[in-house]
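anyone seen this seq b4? input:
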Amino acid sequence: MKKLLQKLFREPVIRFADKYSSRPDKQRVFDSLTELHKKITAGDEKKGLIIPFDTTMQKFIIFSDQHKGAKNNADDFFVCEKNYLAALDYYFNENFYFINLGDGEEFWENTVAAVKKSYPECFEKEEQFLKQKRFIKIFGNHDLDWNTDLKANILLNSFYKESFSVYEGCVLATAINERAFQIYLTHGHQGDLQSDGNWFSKLFVAKIWGPMQGLLDINPNTPANNDHLKSLHNTIMYEWSSAEKNILLITGHTHQPVFMSLTHLERLYVKLSTAQKANDASLIKNIEDEIKKAQPANETPPDLSKIIPSYFNSGCCCFDDGDITGIEIADGCIRLIKWQSKNNIPQREVLEEIKLSELEDLLP
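predicted toks r here
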């Protein structure tokens, strides 16, 4: 019976979820991002910290959207745990700061006790960063409980054996090519009518979507390299960032990796254009084959000639193939990375990379 239900309802339910899971309002998104950035840079430490950093010395790893659950059929993180643990070991040993960019825990579908019981090793490894003051935790819409002061203090002591501040965002402040430069980080749910403090959405996920995921064995997070064109929410985030000066914006929330304002598919279009200009027939064929694998039939090549590389998205740590993606800032570079298991051994792969000094030259 379960297999029959999966066959009949799995695809329609996923399409329904894709259509109604996000309702970003452009003006609300713009207003929310602007207000939060102003408060952080004005010194409101309840909202977030300004963190000065040296691009040649300090290193940051940014992961978001683990959605740690209860290790049941509705838990999207379970299949990714091994890669996540290996990644945390690597970044701890390499002296990275860890910025957890929101939705680390899935509190819409699960009790706090169930999440804590299911992933003790993950919280222990995150706690290692905390003990060395290398852990910055940002709340998202699915772990908004971290933003309620009294409850958060109790929860933090329970999960990490000490309480600490959880923020709505943070700003990494530095200088590149002798001009002030900021990297602004927040989860990215702000302005999304289905996510930004919406009690009905939370109720729907907890009472309807979560049980249906378990019954129909659904994880809507397709692999990182099968990206489409930017989602509407990512597009709005990009539009906000492209109008700012000397600011890069990094968010999560959409589960869609974005590097220099482009998804994987969009970067393939850019590479195809370059290959066509060079009249490289072999390379053109290879890229066209990659596009066919990633591109849905109803998508057409966008005009990417005037894209400003001001927006990045860390993707998520709950892809259904077990991969996780994140953003590294290290060695004077910014990178989109993926951790995946090869022969059952987690391995780090750099998907995209650019020097911050070169990136700054490309911004207006």
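The first strand starts at residue 48 and ends at 52. The CA atoms of residues 265 and 291 lie 7 Å apart. kinda curious what u guys think
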